[in-house]
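Table S2 (continued). Query chain:
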Amino acid sequence: MAEYNEDAYKFARKAYIEYSCPFERALLSRCAGCGRSRRLNLAEREAIACDDPAVREHCIAFYDALRMNAQFALKISPGVQWPFGKEIRAECGGVRGLSAVLDGPADEATDIAATVMQARERFGDAAAFPYSEIMRAVVHYEPRKRRS
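Corresponding output:
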């Protein structure tokens, strides 16, 4: 059996997906949804693309601020690659926490782009979001357990 060529996959992914979603892991784990995302199948893998580049910039700003604020909450040193489980906790817990702050659904019905845009209307820039409240949801988020 031939080995999988990861470099070829990354090249194909880059050529096929013009705008990747910063919350791809959250969407793939189905802890949240997004009305502006599109699911794709590439080389037997599922990927997420963003169909709205303008909103994507706001999502990226939230994603970056979320990761910066979650480092302390999840006990991650700056500059260290994040383990998958902590990345999921940050993305899923962060999106759900932001939605809860906005009195929206804090479950898989959460729409990431809509939540980010609503938060921008209420708080302004992503740096002004209430991260102390959002971090509570990040810390308490438990990824679903693997099936046996």
